[in-house]
Amino acid sequence: MNTSCDIKANNTVSPDNNVPHVLRANENRAMPPPPVNGGLYGGPQVDHAWMPQAVTPTDTNLIMENLKTANPPPGALAHFVSTVRPGNNYVSMPSVYNFNQTHEQNCGPFVIHGTKPSC
Prior knowledge:
With 119 residues, the protein is largely without helices or strands. It has one helix at residues 59-64; strands spanning 97-98, 113-114. It is elongated and about 65 Å long.
């Protein structure tokens, strides 16, 4: 059987650009900065222990930055909580890759995402 495959590299589902993955509201735009004092108190920013902490509310930030302080198990920083629903949400997944690199006898097409063992 003679098949022709267009075997591509396993590229990340969220390509790099000038907006860091942890700050992305969509593929090309950053989230707005958090409000002063969490939006609960007026005046200048106060950094007391009981005050709201400034956090960018994205899935990627919560998984890849905030989870680091919890001493997560191996591979936990590569697991994401959402699926992209265009027009409804956006999740930047820099450590998730499209499954494209296959053998010529089984060249797809595939719609499979996965992580690399080094994550």
